[in-house]
Amino acid sequence: MKEYKFVFFDFDGTLLNTINGTKESALYALKHFNILVSDAENIGNIFCGPPLRESFKKYNVNDEDIEEAIKLYRKYQSENTVECNELYNGIEEMLSTLKKKGKKLIIVTAKLEQTAIKI
């Protein structure tokens, strides 16, 4: 079996359960545009993964407002949802084991860097 020096992890949904923070941020941004969401419980899953631009378009945010929606989402996320995120069970131990084995651990995310660091 080949040994790898670098190990990449996706942040959202792999290392941390970020669904609640994602949900709250999306609802906040959509509310700004008076968009009511009938599937509020599922919105975290809808926004976690695809680019924000695509997710907002699913809720009919027009092209002129997309950038503002993204800014609102990210600002709210950074300032209000850090405590909403939960590390999955066993992640801390797994990362520690890999580090002890000399692996370089790399985390990738679409979040703003300062938000990911804060979380």
Task: Give the gist of this structure.
Helices cover 48% and strands 12% of the residues. It is elongated, with a radius of gyration of 16 Å. With 119 residues, the chain is mainly α.
Features:
119 residues; mainly alpha; DNA polymerase, domain 1; two-stranded parallel sheet
Description:
- The protein is mostly helical and 119 residues long.
- The protein has one domain: Putative phosphatase, domain 2 (DNA polymerase, domain 1), CATH 1.10.150.
- It is 48% helix and 12% strand.
- It has six helices and four strands.
- The strands form two sheets. A two-stranded parallel sheet has the order 1-4.
Task: Outline the fold blueprint.
Layout: E1 6-10, E2 16-17, H1 19-32, H2 43-47, H3 52-58, H4 66-80, E3 86-87, H5 91-100, E4 104-108, H6 113-118
Parallel strand pairs: 1-4
Antiparallel strand pairs: 2-3
Helix pairs in contact: 1-4, 3-4
Taking Cα atoms only, what radius of gyration do you get, to the nearest Å? Answer: 16 Å
Find the CATH topology: DNA polymerase, domain 1
Q: In CATH's first tier, which class applies?
A: Mainly Alpha
Structural class: mainly alpha
Instruction: State the separation between the terminal residues, measured CA to CA.
Output: 34 Å
> pLDDT below 50 for ≥5 consecutive residues: which ranges?
none
Can you say what the CATH homologous superfamily is?
Answer: Putative phosphatase, domain 2
Strand order of the largest sheet: 1-4
Number of domain modules: 1
Helix-residue proportion: 40-55%
- Architecture (CATH level 2) name: Orthogonal Bundle
Approximately what portion of the residues adopt beta-strand conformation? 5-15%
Globally, the shape reads elongated
Order of helices and strands: EEHHHHEHEH
* Total helical elements: 6
Largest beta-sheet characterization: 2 strands, parallel
Instruction: Tell me the number of strands.
Output: 4
Would you tell me the overall average pLDDT?
93
